[in-house]
Amino acid sequence: MIYKTIQYLVQHTNIGVHYDRDLNKDKKITTIADASVGTEYDAQSIIGVIIWYEKNIFNVYSNESSNKCVSLTEAELHAIYEGYADSEILKVILTEFGEGGDKELTMLTDSK
Question: Which of 7, 60, 97, 103 is most buried, by the most CB atoms less than 10 A from its CB?
Answer without folding.
Answer: 103
